[in-house]
Amino acid sequence: MGRDAPVPDPPRVAWRKQTRQCVLDAARDLTCEAGWDQVSLLAVAARAGVSRPSVYKEFGNRAGPGRALVVRETQQFLAGVADALHPGVPDSHACLRAAILYVLREADKQPLIRAVITAARKGSDSLLPYLTARADPIFDAGQTLVQGWLATRYPEQDTESLQVAADVIVRMTISHLILPADEQHLTAERLATTALQLLK
């Protein structure tokens, strides 16, 4: 085994990681099928093939897997946003427009996010706060990503201005996910224009 080869996890740690992934996969499938409001930890445990006490031990309560599930799915989602923001194109407006359009389109394609948003449009689903709450790591991760990108594009701007612009971009994009007003490309164009005007 080479010096750079990863050290395998101890059996107990490996089992715990596998159990966690199985539980999150089960929670994701059940949420896509019926919405988070209809998902119980008993059903999640049964689908994952583990005991309910094991689920409680790993996640604490019903909110635990919900939050962890959204974090896992959104990390993958934000990786795509980052790719859209950093294509090496000099036109900042075009980059931001492409990133917003990516969010709007991918939200329709990804089963979990689509399920959460569809339920929210009907006035239900308690999983939505994990996507939208200001204090939640998901919102913060999106804002941090956008603010970092803005800092590379507008180095003359102060931190507070960049933070406000990033906050507006993330909030407006999420709002249009829940309550779409126009065709997606028109929404992306308008949001990009509005947000970047704050930095002029």
Automatic annotation (TrEMBL):
Gene Ontology molecular-function annotations: DNA-binding transcription factor activity; transcription cis-regulatory region binding
Pfam family, one: TetR_C_35
Superkingdom, natural source: Bacteria
Protein's recorded name: HTH tetR-type domain-containing protein
Known DNA-binding region: 40-59
Organism for this UniProt entry: Streptomyces roseus
Domain HTH tetR-type, residue spans: 17-77
Keywords: DNA-binding, Transcription, Transcription regulation
Xref: PANTHER family: HTH-TYPE TRANSCRIPTIONAL REGULATOR BETI (PTHR30055:SF234), HTH-TYPE TRANSCRIPTIONAL REGULATOR RUTR (PTHR30055)
UniProt-listed SUPFAM superfamilies: Homeodomain-like
